[in-house]
Description:
The chain is mainly alpha-helical. It has a domain at 66-189: Tetracycline Repressor, domain 2. Helices cover 68% and strands 0% of the residues. It is built from eight helices and no strands. It has helices at residues 18-38, 44-51, 55-61, 65-82, 92-117, 126-148, 158-171, 175-189. The radius of gyration is 18 Å and the shape is elongated. Keywords: DNA-binding, Transcription, Transcription regulation.
Amino acid sequence: MSTADAIPTDLLKRPKRADALRNYEKVLAAAREAFAEGGEATALEEIARRAGVGIGTLYRNFPNRQALLEALYLGEVEQLCRSTEEFAGAEPWEALTGWIGRLVAYIGTKRALAAELMNYLDTDAALFATSRECLWSAGEPLLVRAQEAGVVRRDITIGELIQLVVGIVKIATAPEQVDRLLGVALDGLRYQG
């Protein structure tokens, strides 16, 4: 799967009409903001109000809470996967660490969303498998490029690198601790020759 393909369209269904797409995007933006503020306690009615649409419009796009959560989650994964394109012209080390920075920000803000999705899905669900595949496909070319340039050790895979970053974000108790631990980990990632 290329980053241009990102998330398969059968998992992330967007409306085709311009007005319907606008409402879809407004609901997602309002949901992203509302869930960030209120977490699992956020009511769908509140999301519709924030989006400036009726509850029927919300349900037309997202028939239930799970569908809305899945669309939010997949949209964020897709955005992260596509962000690799921004690093195409950067030096290999800067490209890799720039994307890792985006990954850290993504993980830090999506923990509550993923936790709520776990109320509906198990860790082997297609949603999570597809998301992992997308992240690996997006990040692997950056890692390989850095390895081929001789700036990153060759004995690490993209799966291990993502697992390392996720672990750091999950165990850190403050943003400055994430920065410190990530800095130590990235120092260990550099090729020592």
